[in-house]
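[Meeting: bench + compute handoff]

Bench side (C.D.) handed over the final construct sequence. Compute side (W.E.) agreed to return the predicted structure before the next meeting so the bench team could plan truncations. Sequence as handed over:
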Amino acid sequence: MQFATLGRSGLHVSSACLGTMNFGTGGSVASCGEAEATRIVGTFLDAGGNVIDTADGYAGGESERIVGRALKGKRDSVVLATKAYLPQGPGPNERGLSRAHLTRALEASLHRLGTDYVDLYQCHQWDEATPIEETIATLDGFIRSGKVRYAGCSNFSAAQIVESQWAAQRTGATPFISLQPQYSLLARTIETEILPVCRRHGLGTLVWSPLGGGVLTGRYRSGAAPDADTRMGRLQASPLPMARAWAAGLLNEPNLAIADEVERTATELGTTPTAVALAWVRRHPDVTSVIVGPRTVEQLEGNLQGLDFELPPEARARLDEVSRPAVRTPVNGMTNQP
């Protein structure tokens, strides 16, 4: 396992990050019981991984509880990350990035995790209703209190990252050190503006969905409905419109064509599509750590092997070309230009 500092900080994180959205049975797509989740955590730590990511919105908080119990006696050797923003109740102040909500959300997360601090506390998404100065000042207070070591963000645009870092600079607060963006052969839009902004403003990246929701693993075929036990099958059957829309956005012909190329490359190289897709993501110079979200120990072991795989330059170039977005120019008033 390789390690790198996260952004402009002294925090060392492993090249693999264990994502725990699948831990617990209380959410819409979560599907990993506590016994298997505990085995996954142990296997990940034994393999040398040190960063584990969760959120208060995963499985109604059950993911945090499972992670906390799995880390009993191991807490100080782990970089523990969680996130806040998502609704924790029906009230208008039970969501978002306000001081009122974040203060309650952090205390609740610490209780569920069974710890008195988190290493990385992240804004799960941008909050249009709250001034960013309020959010940054609140996070800085958490850091000064010792309840949080570092702050980060997730799913922010390039402009929102800049706004956040400028707000920290203006107020003398602690800046963000990390971003969690989506990144895979199916989702490369962050290359144009977001990754350069992260580089300039001192943010490392913990990239999520490197397998395109499982589409790049070779499980899905054009014209065939996904099996009910696959992630896409569960998303399509979800009662949540957002989950069904997510599946529809991934299972389309252009994405399946990219997945076919990944599978052909894997066959040529004598490895798995998972290994090819993960190796492609890991080798980007602006990717600090790759979040993998297994439901079983076997899936985790396959993911870790994939992250160790070396993709030949010619194979990477071919995948670069087949997955290249149609429009790559920054948003500058001329985005219709190729």
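W.E. noted at the follow-up: The chain has a mean pLDDT of 92. C.D. will use this when planning the next construct.
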